[in-house]
Amino acid sequence: MTSATDLTLAGARGALARREISAVELTRTFIGAVEALNPRLNAYITVTPDLALRQAEAADAALGRGEGRALTGIPLAIKDLFCTAGTRTTAASRILGNFVPPYESTVSGNLLRDGAVFLGKANLDEFAMGSSNATSAFGGVENPWKRRDAPEAVLVPGGSSGGSAAAVAARLALGATATDTGGSIRQPAAFCGIAGIKPTYGRCSRFGVVAFASSLDQAGPVARTVEDCAILLGSMAGFDPKDSTSADMPVPDFAAACARGVKGLRIGIPREYRLDGMPAEIEALWRQGMDWLKAEGAELVDISLPHTRYALPTYYIVAPAEASSNLARYDGVRFGLREDGEDLRDLYERTRAAGFGDEVKRRILIGTYVLSAGYYDAYYVKAQQVRTLIKRDFDQAWERVDAILTPATPSAAFGRDDKQDDPVAMYLNDVFTVTANLAGIPGLSVPAGLDAKGLPLGLQVLGRPFDEETVFAVGAALERAAGFDAVPAVRAGA
Amino acid sequence: MSLDTATVRRVASLARIRVEDGDLPRLEAELNGILGWIEQLRAVDTQGIEPMAGGGAQALRMRRDEVTDGGIQGEILANAPDRAGAFFAVPKVVE
Amino acid sequence: MSYTLEGASGAWEVVIGLEVHAQVTSQAKLFSGAATEFGAEPNSQVSFIDAGFPGMLPVINRECVAQAVRTGLGLNAQINLWSRFDRKNYFYADLPQGYQISQYQYPVVGQGVIEIQLGDGSTKQIGITRLHLEQDAGKSLHDQHPSKSFIDLNRSGVALMEIVSEPDMRSPEEAGAYLTKLRQILRYLGTCDGNMEQGSLRADVNVSVRRPGEGFRTRCEVKNVNSIRFVMQAVEAEARRQIEVWEDGGEVVQETRLFDTQRGVTRSMRSKEDAHDYRYFPDPDLPPLVLEQAWVDGLKAALPELPDARRARYVGDFGLTPYDAHVLTLEKETAAFYEAVAKGRDPKMAANWITGDFFAGLNRTGHGIGDSPVSAENLGGLLDLIKDGTLSGKLAKEVLEAMFETGKPPAVLVEERGLKQVTDTGAIEAVIEQVMAANAGKVEEYRSGKDKLFGFFVGQTMKAMQGKGNPALVNELLKKKLG
What we know:
The complex is a heterotrimer of chains A (494), B (95) and C (483). Chain B contains three helices and three strands. Chain B is α+β, with helices and mostly antiparallel strands. Chain B has a domain at 5-42. In chain B, a hairpin with a 2-residue loop joins strand 2 and strand 3. The relative contact order of chain B is 0.08. Chain C is of the alpha+beta class and 483 residues long. In chain C, the strands form four sheets. In chain C, strands 1, 2, 7, 8, 11, 12, 13, 14 and 15 form a nine-stranded mixed beta sheet that branches. Chain C has a three-stranded antiparallel beta sheet with strand order 6-5-16, with no helix packed on it. A two-stranded antiparallel sheet of chain C has the order 4-17. In chain C, strand 1 and strand 2 form a beta hairpin. Chain C is elongated. The interface between A and B is large, with 73 and 52 residues.
């Protein structure tokens, strides 16, 4: 038998249901894998083996009573942006200190309701601001994939959900929660050769998730297969009266949608996603994806999303503006780090200077500036107008197509020391993913192939608001066609 | 629009982030790099376009006027860096 | 004659606008389910939302919106079916989120107008600019410790209505009358308890001065004035300060000031100095507030009678003087008391008794209408005893005094103290005969034409009866006996 850590989430669920393995055994296997590899990969900030085993015991009891639910006994990693009652939550920032939330986020609560086992809290970029996981106050995460030509080089897992993606790719969890504000689920999923979906804005509750940019933040899952993502999203999603932006919509059977096929679907190919200087391998993979879908009976349609090129600058006004306000609460008064000062103002300034890392500070300052008197209209209002135009581009596209196919990222995973000096170069990582956040639509990243150096590359499927089912159908079809079975060099059981 | 050192200092002060004088030139250059890149938005014609607000389109849902929360003094104060009895404590503020 | 202040160089006019913060009457807070009750243990009525904990999100309380709409309707104002919440960003120890959720660009209530009553009997229209909903901050205590301030977040997140007036007031009296009227309307509507001591109603007073006929000059804002009397004092103190600045050749600087109630002067507020860049932007946690016209219409249909309408009804239907109608409608409780007393009785008589002896009794015994020892039912009962002849007016006053002392119903007191008026003609005649016998000389004088002596006989008879003789009967029988 293959190692339990190589099971998919759906496979593990079957094995648990058939009592081929107990939840405690499965959890012990993963705890062992985490203990072995996490010191190297740093995918988890906090590991909670005792909690996991207690949850696994309860899961076995429930399974024994025939009361198994969607995720009973399934070991998961929780991005350390989700507040977890009684377990330290850091947002990968020094400023939260030893903050232990007395409350549970709705999304993690939904997973617990469905019987999940929490192995620990996954590393991320500080406050989810980053594309390489390098801004974490708890150190970077190592991508478990290695370049063929330089197997010793440490690559980034992407970000901000780098810990979640690396943990799943290295078989340190069957799946993980993640969040996506500009690509923070899809980009690390692509860099780590796994699947990840950012659902429609409002699909998953934001209650209890440390806020970065409220109008863009969406929780979603990463897992090794599209179907596993569908299963996880089915538990995570749902209306929450505690979040005024949560959509009061029924949660469909996402997993069932994975088997639908793409026959007769119209797939849009946006010409603006063909960038100057884009690596040929990315272009080739995209073309391959089109061919796969065509072969499965889909119709390809050339479309135009003319405001695409303005999406990143728009994002880098809206997101920092909201963040500058959302992060004002970290002031050293009620929780988290405090640096003493001569007076209250000095206390604030010292606390925030010591507590936030450079990238977070940069974004707070940019956000403060673009909202300040005299600049608000030129920056913030302008950006929100462009955002309307970006959304309008998509609205017009949906009149002609059912889903859109694009590359997930403009490159494969890069080295830990690359792109660190120029913030703007780092921001360009999100060029294909950020439009979905601005427009509020769902986007799925699917591993579809390897580049010449043996690193995974992903394709992205975008869909209509609240039509994740079509996105899953297209994503699963790509996955089947790609037959992606490469594994990372660093992984449990290897 | 580009930032000068005085503006960087003012913005940092508005954001309550202490910046050492030695860090100002670096910060100024970084912020100007980002803002310069953002400037390309000026090319977009947005006349008469309604700015998008929020991520979703729906109207505000209203809850019932019932006391369903509070009464958790201990949990509210549990993470406080400094407290005095049932109060949070901060350096004295002069109004 | 319009109000002016004399400076060294001539007369100055005062221009006043008020921003009133009124705490919305509701069970729970604007965006959280924590209680709003006053005076609880520190930090005991606080949710994680009110304390700005990570990941916490606001959800709006429908009743708070309804209260704002009711208030807007009571101020004859435009109700905006589409409004929005913005964040006002600034750092302060009692502002846990680092921003206040408020309505900056699109308030729920637009322009309105109210009429104020002035001491000389005249009225004036004061424009309302807008009313919006916002969160209150927590409370900082600065006097509990030598080097620390203490923070209590119980108030954090309580719903406030900020009601902004046009700069239409021109004297301390008008400012006082405006606040009085506004408070009266809020209390009638039940949308704010109007309790200024507990801070449920506080005013920021915008004051500027100018030469008569000039355009507006720079204004200053005097923050957080917490009584009507202090508002009037603050207006005058601030106006006098500004006149002095202008007359000394200086320039009034727009700023936020505090009113020192001890010394009767305003002073600059240091802590707010650099907080002027509030970086307002739409709160991304809250979609727009969209109201149905039918919902607004339903609230309108259910509004209680407001002071202006009630005053008009007292004058028109009950025949009260405008002054009595004004006095009786000032407080909702007084009007309710009056209507309970007047019901089924002579409304003018009820008004006279309440504004006269009853109010005097409350004053004398240090009570308010809410804890009056004399209930409306008992005061009505007293009026009934006058009407049916059991008590004379004079006896009734005595009974009312006893009612204030004992809280007992009038009939019981009349019984206990034997204060019942004597209407038995035989008994009265017997007394008259005694009086005539004892004053035979005066009887002769009267009968020989000295008519003025009639009053003497009335007095003697009543005195002999300890005031209990029915005055009409005494008169009638005396006339008959004296011939």
